[in-house]
Design a protein that fits this description.
Chain A: This is CoA transferase subunit A. Chain A: InterPro entries: CoA_trans_fam_I, NagB/RpiA_transferase-like. Chain A: Keywords: Plasmid, Transferase. Chain A: GO terms for molecular function: transferase activity. Chain B: Pfam families: CoA_trans. The complex is a heterodimer of chains A (285) and B (263). Chain A has 285 residues and is of the alpha/beta class. In chain A, 29% of the residues lie in helices and 23% in strands. Chain A is built from 9 helices and 13 strands. Chain A has helices spanning 7-14, 32-40, 55-62, 83-91, 104-115, 131-134, 183-189, 242-253, 255-267, and strands at residues 3-4, 20-23, 46-50, 66-71, 98-101, 120-123, 139-142, 149-154, 160-169, 174-176, 192-201, 212-214, 221-224. In chain A, strands 1, 2, 3, 4, 5, 9, 10, 11, 12 and 13 form a 10-stranded mixed sheet that branches. In chain A, strands 6-8-7 form a 3-stranded antiparallel sheet. In chain A, helix 2 (32-40) runs parallel beside helix 3 (55-62) and helix 3 (55-62) crosses helix 4. The mean pLDDT of chain A is 96. Chain B is of the alpha/beta class. Chain B is built from 8 helices and 14 strands. The N and C termini of chain B lie far apart (50 Å). In chain B, the strands form 3 sheets. Chain B has a 10-stranded mixed sheet, sandwiched between helices. In chain B, strands 6-7 form a two-stranded antiparallel ribbon. Classes of the chains: A alpha/beta (285), B alpha/beta (263). Chains A and B meet through helix 2, helix 4, helix 5, helix 8 and helix 9 of A and helix 3, helix 4, strand 9 and helix 5 of B.
Chain lengths: 285, 263
């Protein structure tokens, strides 16, 4: 059963130095507040996993919390490069970053394999591409029925997955809607999980019988952090701050402006600071 | 004739490649603009799919990212990302993939991974994302990129997604049944793979562009087809639809948020 706890407790209990950590969210519902708590608690040597590492992982890499990263697309969506990620790969600042690079299809399949308790995922992928030449974790299997050679990648099994969702009930059942990305698979693939939510309610009231629900017994910790996905968004609550994604390009380009931003907005801040970004649209209310 | 920019010509020329029957896997940037212009002009029933899981989306403004809420709000339905790549893309349900890249070679292979050696890159680019499998699993691929020496290179440092490989029947030899890149739409001209060698060849030149300009801006000795036509100039309707959506998009993505206001 999920425990409903504070963000500080959830991170202290579930994120250990050296852990493999997935903070998922496919543009939508990215767990920024939780990621900032990980930075504040000074977690070290994390191996980060995410299909689309964007600003949040740029921040974790820039403060030196990560020893490595498994990913399939690392950029500032629609804006350009992640400058802290590039600085780490191109100049080893603030420390070298080991990278394990895949395609989206492979990562999505690898999470699904993790959730399904399988050792690896297979896909008809990487044909004619160079990634298998530089990533020893992209291998091949032969279909025992047809003889077709397919790509194989290891299942993703994070020590802890962290996601953000719209709401949870008081028992800790969690509801997600909108673009649901790979979050369900990432939680089910992990040993432990933290879900931050916009609201804790008496009843989930799913608007459609097809909403994604993670039952309380499949989640470790639930935390009430309104606005916790900002500057990404929570469908039905508040929109993505595209302006912040654009502004980040300048903040992150320079090591000093980045460090100053982290001090002011992460180290000297608290989870409650996200609440001013929270809002519920009329549609949901 | 109304004045237009080379980028406007490129986007409109790319939009004309699409029809109502297309089920199109859309990338952000120029491809997204082209696909939505097609939807708002001659192909209102085109199906647009973004890799975040939105199927049949009809955004009113162009998304800044592949997962903007606008895409989900206006979609016929939205699926998880594993479902998107497994059932819809790998399942062979998508007719057309629209890609761009940092670099392309004469056989339409694309690089969006690194410039320089992989382990010690001069420039680390975002990576392939969906492209490796989009390139092999969609029925055919359109590519849209501005023509420049930096982008159109003799040899790629890294093949992120395969186009026609080493040319000829390379795709068939690897067991691929899809067509691969069939058109490359640039700001100066349109290229098609030669039917035999699969080398990209200029088949259409945009109004006011010279052959010398094309040769000058390409990093390899670019070839021209025996018959080269002039790309029809943008119509008033195409231009006004493009400019309207660009204006709406610009307005939508400008906010009052400043960096320091973010928690």
């Amino acid at each position: 059963m999920a425990r409903i706890v504070s963000l500080a407790e959830a991170v202290a209990e579930n994120v250990k130095d050296g852990d493999t950590v997935a903070m998922e969210g496919f543009t939508h519902l990215i767990p920024y507040a939780a990621g900032h708590e990980v930075i504040r608690q000074g977690s070290k040597d994390l191996f980060l996993v995410r299909m689309t590492p964007d600003i949040l992982y740029d921040q974790l890499i820039g403060v030196g919390a990560a020893r490595g990263m498994k990913f399939s697309w690392g950029g500032n969506p629609g804006v350009g490069s992640l400058h802290r990620f590039r600085d780490a790969v191109e100049n080893q600042w603030p420390r070298p970053l080991e990278i394990e690079e895949h395609s989206h299809a492979a990562m999505a399949n690898a999470y699904e394999a993790g959730a399904a308790n399988l050792p690896f995922a297979m896909l008809r992928g990487y044909i004619g591409a160079d990634l298998p030449k530089v990533n020893p974790n992209i291998r091949q299997v032969t279909c025992p029925f047809t003889g077709e050679v397919l790509a194989a990648v290891p299942a993703i099994r994070p020590d802890v997955t962290i996601i953000h969702a719209q709401r949870a009930d008081r028992k800790g059942n969690v509801l997600l809607e909108g673009i649901v990305g790979v979050q369900k698979e990432a939680v089910l693939a992990a040993r432990r999980s933290i879900v931050t939510v916009e609201e804790i309610v008496d009843e989930l009231d799913p608007p459609s019988p097809n909403s994604v629900v993670l039952p309380t017994w499949a989640v470790t910790a639930v935390v009430h952090v309104p606005g916790g996905a900002f500057p990404s968004y929570a469908h039905g609550y508040y929109p993505r701050s595209n302006a912040f994604y654009i502004a980040w390009d300048e903040i992150a380009r320079d090591r000093e402006t980045f460090t100053a931003w982290i001090k002011e907005n992460v180290l000297d801040a608290k989870p409650e600071d996200f609440a001013r970004h929270a809002a519920k649209s009329a549609k949901v209310a | 004739m109304t004045e237009f920019t080379p980028t406007e010509m490129m986007t409109i020329a790319a939009s004309r490649e699409l029809s109502n029957d297309d089920v199109c896997f859309v990338g952000i940037g120029a491809p997204s603009a082209a696909c939505n212009i097609a939807r708002l002009t001659h192909a209102p029933d085109i199906t647009l799919i973004y890799e975040s899981g939105t199927v049949g989306t009809k955004p009113d403004v162009l998304p800044l990212s592949i997962g903007d809420g606008e895409l989900c709000d206006t979609a016929l339905f939205t699926v998880s990302v594993p479902e998107m790549f497994r059932y819809w893309l790998q399942g062979g349900r998508i007719t057309t993939g629209f890609l761009g890249g940092a670099q392309i070679d004469r056989f339409a292979n694309l690089n969006t991974t690194v410039v320089g050696p992989y382990d010690h890159p001069k420039v680390r680019l975002p990576g392939g994302g969906g492209a490796p499998e989009i390139a092999s699993n969609c029925g055919r691929i359109f590519i849209t990129m501005a023509l420049s020496k930096r982008g159109f290179v003799e040899k790629l440092p890294f093949i992120t997604s395969m186009g026609h490989g080493e040319g000829g029947n390379h795709r068939e030899r690897l067991g691929m049944k899809t067509k691969g890149p069939t058109r490359v739409i640039t700001d100066l001209c349109i290229l098609e793979p030669d039917p035999e060698t699969k080398e990209l060849t200029v088949v259409s030149i945009h109004h006011g562009v010279t052959r010398a300009q094309i040769v000058e801006n390409c990093g390899w000795a670019i070839k021209f087809a025996d018959t080269v036509i002039e790309t029809p100039v943008p119509t008033e309707t195409e231009l006004s639809v493009l400019r309207d959506i660009n204006a709406r998009t610009k307005k939508a993505h400008q906010g009052t948020d400043k960096g320091k206001e973010a928690a």
